[in-house]
Amino acid sequence: MVHLFPGQGDFPVAPLLRAVTAHKSVRAAADEVFAAVDAVAVERGLRPLGPWLLGPEPPRGRDLARAGTGLPHLFMYGACLTAHRALELEHGEPSAVLGVSFGEIPALTAAGVYGLADGARIAHDLAVVQFVCPGGLTLLACGEQAARALTRAAGGGAVVACVNNDAEAVVSGPLSQLAAVEEAAAAAGVRAVRLPLPYAAHHPGLSAQADRFAAAVRRYPRHEARRVVHSAVAGRAYRADDDLALRLADCLIRPAHIPQIVRQVAARRPAALYETGTGSSLTRSVRAVLGREAPPAHAPLADEAFPW
Fold this sequence. Notes:
The mean pLDDT is 97. It is built from 13 helices and eleven strands. The protein has helices at 14-22, 24-43, 49-53, 61-66, 71-91, 104-110, 116-130, 144-153, 175-188, 207-217, 244-253, 258-266, 281-290; strands at 2-5, 96-99, 136-140, 159-165, 168-173, 192-194, 228-231, 236-237, 256-257, 273-275, 297-298. The strands form two sheets. Strands 8-7-2-1-10-11 form a six-stranded mixed β-sheet, sandwiched between helices. Strands 6-3-5-4-9 form a five-stranded mixed β-sheet. Helix 5 runs parallel beside helix 6, helix 7 runs antiparallel to helix 10 (207-217) and helix 12 (258-266) packs across helix 13 (281-290). 48% of the residues lie in helices and 14% in strands. It folds into two domains: 2-132 and 204-302, Malonyl-Coenzyme A Acyl Carrier Protein, domain 2 (3-Layer(aba) Sandwich), CATH 3.40.366; 136-194, Alpha-Beta Plaits (2-Layer Sandwich). By secondary structure, the protein is of the alpha/beta class. It holds the Pfam family Acyl_transf_1.
């Protein structure tokens, strides 16, 4: 089996809270993961997440966003690794993991490349860098080539940031350029939705921020991977000689291509694919890309009926 670690665009809070309440294995995993995450949160001057998430008045996404730079990133990181640990407990260890953009951080942690606490530190380091990544992201209901045509029609300041499947792509750029893309999309009859993320990513104009993030990642010890790690940005599995600080920083400046990497993962003939985030957009992309040839693909946290 393969565990899938998604990007930041689809991360509601409620599915994790529901699963933690309903399933002992998810609660045990959450206790373990968020103990490490919360130690990093306190170290970085942020509110501990575990007691808040499991308390009588748990936060919503907007509450996390208002509580300090990096807390949403720590939530996403913790949620992914909670699902990963619970899935390992109930369904066995995966032979490989796949990371999409931000998801590469928990994916590498799940592979043992970074320790649980250091992975949380890297997630927070990314948040600090993204705080100074001006712009935003817009989801377009069209394929890659149509999305590129819309960015050209809008003046070229926005770029295709992520190809989700043959009918969905994300563009990134300055807010004025995104507005122009959205206007061009409306004229072309293409649905456009601005993602609720206050920064750009996967844009070549963010090279200074990428350098800063790479320098931050180099502070943490790297260990030999216990399983194969596939990257949607690199377009391949990582090798032992990869400079992972640079590869993680690439997520700020290079596009992610989900269809390409999903086909590579499918070639491994996994028995099942499990999305570790709280949403299901990556699972939907897997099914759209692979069609009838897709192995069973699940989004356990998003699926109330999933058999933990």
